[in-house]
Specification:
One of its GO terms (biological process) is fructose 1,6-bisphosphate metabolic process. InterPro entries: FBPase_class-2/SBPase (IPR004464). One of its GO terms (cellular component) is cytosol. One of its GO terms (molecular function) is fructose 1,6-bisphosphate 1-phosphatase activity. This protein is of the alpha+beta class. It folds into 2 domains: about 160 residues, 2-Layer Sandwich (Fructose-1,6-Bisphosphatase, Chain A, domain 1); about 140 residues, D-Maltodextrin-Binding Protein, domain 2 (3-Layer(aba) Sandwich), CATH 3.40.190. Helices cover about 30% and strands about 25% of the residues. The strands form 2 sheets. Strands 1, 2, 3, 4, 11, 12, 13 and 14 form an 8-stranded mixed sheet that branches. A 6-stranded mixed sheet has the order 7-6-8-5-9-10, sandwiched between helices. β12 and β13 form a beta hairpin. α1 runs antiparallel to α2. The N and C termini lie far apart (about 40 Å). It binds 1,6-di-O-phosphono-beta-D-fructofuranose. 1,6-di-O-phosphono-beta-D-fructofuranose binds next to α3 and β8.
């Protein structure tokens, strides 16, 4: 997969971000998600690839667009697996909070784990701690390992955790150990990637979140040279069976970064929808002008590009929300 495909995928996330940002703060997460999905689906038609959705909006009977198995692209380019989250942080947008993004991960055909839509336990770190962590280690040991690797004192180490009741024990243990917690409401793709960007001050991501988000994050973490491990967390026998049907013989398998994204030929693209630590949100600058802020990276070359773009919405009427 080449640089051109990476840049084409940014056009797709930009469109999804512009469409959904118009729903910010309107208390309607479904419409925000629909707007992102429709815009993303439309843009995919012109992308030079033979893509197949492996992580999308659901099975064919659940989602009219971007369903698992759907073919995308104009069939002139490489054969790729596509994982999408048109709006990562639906609640964020409906409430006007920070850190919602539109995201796509792509990898050569067969390389992305086909993760069912269920919970997954995850741990992520930046490049200095790569190869040193294990998801089954007690958090206290992991903190010591990452502090040493990142050349920080434990008291200066920051662990980012989604603020959920299920994480209370781990939050208490991080604080007792003397490290810092940084809690976030929604959006664990951005939170896990933050471990790989030293300027965020985040050293370690731990917790249980969506499995699809886990695979998408893994494409970014691979491109940034960091490390991630995971394990699906099926909640009952029915979910165990779903894992098996998706090709995971052992649903509780210890998943390394290379299980999540099997190839080094992977691309991650994201555009901010609302303001965030990683990316600015979509800014409507007056008149028909909208500004987007995106990041795109390729695991093959480890190049990370930040792209600010101005869009004249008079020329993109399909992205403009209809006013009833
Ligand atoms: O809200 P839950 O059930 O704790 O699930 C956690 C998941 O929800 C999110 O915070 C937001 O997901 P949505 O965009 O689908 O609302 C994910 O980033 C995270 O993986």
């Amino acid at each position: 997969m080449d640089r051109e495909l990476a840049l084409e995928l940014v056009r797709v996330t930009e469109a999804a971000a512009i469409a959904s940002a118009q729903w910010m703060g309107r208390g309607d997460k479904m419409s925000a998600d629909d707007a992102a999905t429709t815009a993303m689906r439309t843009m995919f038609d012109s992308v030079s690839m033979e893509g197949v959705v492996v992580i999308g909006e659901g099975e064919l009977d659940e989602a009219p667009m971007l369903y698992i198995g759907e073919e995308l692209g104009n069939k002139t380019g490489p054969s790729v697996d596509i994982a999408v989250d048109p709006l990562e942080g639906t609640n964020i947008v409906s409430k006007g909070h920070n850190n919602a993004v539109a995201v796509i991960a792509a990898a050569e055909r067969g390389a992305l784990l086909h993760a069912p839509d269920m919970y997954m336990d995850k741990i992520a770190v930046g490049k200095y701690a790569k190869g040193l962590i294990h998801i089954d280690d007690p958090i206290e040991r992991t903190i010591d390992i990452v502090a040493r690797a990142n050349n920080k004192r434990v008291r200066d180490l920051t662990v980012i955790i989604q603020e959920r009741d299920r994480h209370q024990d781990i939050i208490d243990r991080v604080i007792k150990k003397g490290a810092r917690v940084k809690l976030f409401g929604d959006g664990d793709v951005g939170a896990s990637i933050a471990t790989c960007l030293p300027e965020t001050g985040v050293d370690l991501f731990v917790g249980r979140g969506g499995a699809p988000e886990g695979v998408i994050s893994a494409a970014a973490i691979k491109s940034l040279g960091g490390d991630m491990q995971a394990r699906l967390a099926p909640q009952d026998e029915e979910e165990m069976e779903r894992c098996r049907q998706m090709g995971l013989e052992d649903p509780l398998q210890h998943l390394t970064l290379d299980h999540l994204v099997k190839s080094d030929d992977a691309i991650f693209a994201a555009t901010g929808v609302t303001e965030g630590e990683l990316l600015d949100g979509v800014k409507f600058l007056g008149g028909d002008l909208a500004q987007t802020d995106s990041i795109v990276m390729r695991a093959k070359t480890r190049t990370v590009r930040f792209i600010k773009a101005h869009h004249h919405l008079d020329y993109k009427p399909h992205l403009v929300k209809n006013e009833e």
